UniProtKB/TrEMBL annotation:
Cross-referenced InterPro entries: Kinase-like_dom_sf, Leu-rich_rpt, LRR_dom_sf, LRR_N_plant-typ, PRK1-6/SRF4-like, Prot_kinase_dom, Ser-Thr/Tyr_kinase_cat_dom
Signal peptide coordinates: 1-22
Subcellular location: Membrane
Database matches in Pfam families: LRR_1, LRRNT_2, PK_Tyr_Ser-Thr
Annotated protein name in UniProt: Protein kinase domain-containing protein
Organism domain of life: Eukaryota
Domain Protein kinase positions: 364-640
Keyword entries, A-Z: Leucine-rich repeat, Membrane, Repeat, Signal, Transmembrane, Transmembrane helix
Region spans: Disordered: 280-330
Ranges that cross the membrane: 254-274
Single GO molecular function: ATP binding
Record's GO cellular component terms: membrane
């Protein structure tokens, strides 16, 4: 009895304490505001008689980002704010995930934002913060993905906790500060953007950061290494040994010197041996290339069935060329290299025996534009084993060697994911290449979205949402596995996305940028329709993100994007400008496909999903690639059960 009484008293006491310490979001933010100066831009909306997350957008406080009527983001930028930031009130905002106070007038040491351990992103750029940041400052912020501290006056060493305690770090912006010393060894595989330029850093660039452009390290005259084109001079073991209190320092010096010479001698011998082997290999490759060139006039032949309407039983030859295996000395699997044997093993002669059907890319009808401008024509063939394959004839390839081509395609063939369509085999010739894929019987996403299949065949919202999620998963996998490529995909568009029997999307035609002739890339790869490519010719993984955003907007609206490579802009809608303008005017719902609008009207959950997906699509198609989310962030925003995003979801127009 006494125990029961004690438990009840403790329970009541805990409720009393909780009630005494509880504080509303309004009270927390108003208390936070008291630590700021020059708050005139906030005064009209940050009032005690209102809620930070009002029922409508117009009732929401300026600079507050909300999710389900709860504050998850603070975005007070370019307001000339200053003062000594008091972080304590913000600790009561349990849903707070992102903070941006960029381009204000804050100064002094870095505030105690590390007390907000659930933050996913923090943007402090463009202020006058100064002083050293403690080395363990970020050790409690294990969920942090983005840290922007650029354009301040920070000094001292780069906090080592950025490199050692943030497993999910994706973006690190430290440029235009006064950091000194060596760069910590960042090993996070998630890291996609780093900028350390214009500091006072010294020493060698760590190996895991060498994948980033040299301009990300510019303005640090004492940095060295292959990336900077400056040889690093490291202290020898001999000099270190002499400084120690060793009795026989001179003897050690001689031992180390002779040992160093011995190691150099061995390295020279090994180099000579490898060089000799390399010459032999080059001679063999040269002979193979000569044999290949001598047979270039032996064109590849594919027998194509007659008209699609089935009117004639006669066959005709493809205008793109002919397939035959008459090349002397080449037969069987040596002429068709398997890189993925999940659908069995077959050879070039198996393709010769199979009638081939030309596959088109039209959007469904002669009156509709097609997503043209791809890397080549395609044919369907059913081999004797019953396996249906697509043979892609590619004529815009670089004149790369067999060895380089083999290495690149084998890497692609080794990939396995339920949302990507991996190549099965290839055939190599100097002037054209064949890539063989599994044939997916269902139509491409381009056909499903734009062909006239009747109202009953329209994709409903759950199907569209499932497709968007699947594409995002496939793209994230490619961005992780092919992170060494500037364009892990490079040609993401709805004609290169197929639908499996289970409704899951299959992303195809990825990872080919390095094999395609540079002169043809602008016409062949849709990633070169991104703003940065059209502006200065630069592309990156964020160009893939732009393409993903265009696909999302296409799925939501059912409209043809003019951004597709080779598509006449007069024949399609510039979805990015169109949606951006509509969002600015508040009429974006009118632009969505009728099935999407109907779903939003019928179900609150679907409505929230649609609005969230639209915001993701707009963010992905932003002008500035640095401000676009990564595919990892896209996945988080699409799959979090409470729909709370890790970063800003405000529409940027």
């Amino acid at each position: 009895m006494a125990v029961a009484w004690l438990i009840s008293r403790l329970f009541l006491l805990s409720l009393t304490v909780h009630h005494a310490n509880s504080i509303t979001e309004t009270e927390s933010l108003l208390k936070f505001k008291q630590s700021l100066t020059n708050t005139k831009p906030l005064d009209d909306s940050w009032t005690p008689d209102s809620q930070p997350c009002g029922e409508t957008t117009t009732q929401r406080w300026i600079g507050i980002l909300c999710n389900k009527n709860s504050v998850f983001g603070l975005q007070i930028e370019q307001m000339n704010l200053s003062g000594n930031i008091d972080v304590t009130p913000l600790t009561d905002l349990s849903g707070l995930r992102t903070i941006s106070i960029m381009n204000n007038s804050f100064s002094g040491i870095i505030p105690e934002f590390n007390r907000l351990t659930a933050l996913r992103s923090i943007y402090l750029s463009g202020n006058r913060f100064s002083g050293k940041i403690p080395s363990d400052y970020f050790s409690t912020m294990v969920w942090l993905k983005k840290a922007w501290l650029s354009n301040n006056e920070f000094s001292g060493l780069i906090p080592v906790s950025l490199a050692t305690t943030l497993p999910n770090l994706m973006e690190l912006r430290l440029e235009n500060n006064r950091f000194i010393g060596i760069i910590p060894n960042f090993t996070q595989r998630t890291l996609v953007d780093v900028d350390l330029s214009n500091n006072r850093l010294t020493g060698e660039i760590p190996p895991d950061l060498e994948k980033f452009d040299v301009k990300k390290f510019a303005g640090n005259p004492d940095l060295c290494g292959a990336k900077m084109g400056i040889i690093c001079t490291k202290p020898t073991k001999a000099s270190i040994a002499i400084e120690g209190p060793m009795k026989d320092a001179n003897n050690s010096k001689y031992y180390i010197a002779f040992g160093t010479l011995g190691v150099l001698f061995i390295v020279i011998i090994i180099s000579l041996v490898f060089k000799k082997k390399k010459k032999k290999k080059q001679k063999k490759t040269s002979r193979r290339s000569s044999e290949q060139d001598s047979n270039d006039d032996q064109q590849i032949q594919i027998t194509v069935d007659g008209s699609r309407s089935g009117g004639s039983g006669k066959s005709k030859k493809s205008r793109s060329g002919e397939l035959s295996d008459k090349s002397p000395g080449v037969s069987g699997t040596t002429d068709l290299v398997m890189v993925n044997k999940e659908k069995g093993v077959f050879c070039l002669s198996d393709l010769m025996k199979a009638a081939a059907h030309v596959l088109g890319n039209s959007g469904g009808g002669n009156s509709r534009p097609s997503s043209s401008g791809g890397v080549g024509s395609a044919y369907k063939a059913v081999i004797a084993s019953g396996v249906a394959v697509v043979v892609k004839r590619v004529t815009v390839m670089n004149q790369v060697s067999v060895d380089v081509f083999d290495k690149e395609v084998r890497k692609l063939g080794s990939l396995r994911h339920k949302n990507i369509l991996t190549p099965l085999a290839y055939h190599f010739r100097r002037d054209e290449k064949l890539l063989v894929f599994e044939f997916v019987p269902n139509l491409s996403l381009l056909h499903r979205l734009h062909s006239d299949h009747g109202e009953e065949s329209q994709l409903d919202w759950p199907s569209r949402f499932k497709i968007i999620q699947g594409i995002a998963r496939g793209m994230l996998y490619l961005h992780r596995e092919l992170e060494f490529l500037s364009l892990p995909h490079g040609n993401l568009k709805t004609s290169n996305i197929f639908l499996g029997d289970d409704g899951e999307p299959l992303v195809s035609e990825f990872g080919l940028q390095r094999l395609i002739n540079p002169d043809a890339q602008f016409q062949s790869l849709v990633a070169y329709k991104s703003p940065e490519a059209e502006r200065d010719g630069s592309v990156s993984a964020k160009s893939d993100v732009f393409c993903f955003g265009v696909v999302v907007l296409e799925i939501l609206t059912g409209k043809y994007p003019s951004q597709y490579a080779g598509l006449d802009r007069a024949g399609g809608a510039n979805l990015v400008e169109w949606i951006g303008s509509a969002v600015e005017q508040g009429g974006w719902m009118d632009l969505l496909h009728p099935t999407v609008v109907s779903a939003a009207a019928d179900d609150k959950t679907s409505s929230d999903e649609i609005e969230n997906v639209l915001r993701i699509g707009v963010r992905c198609t932003g002008e500035d690639p640095d401000r676009r989310p990564s595919m990892n962030e896209v996945i988080d925003e699409l799959t979090l059960e409470d729909s709370s995003n890790d970063d800003f979801i405000t529409i940027e127009t």
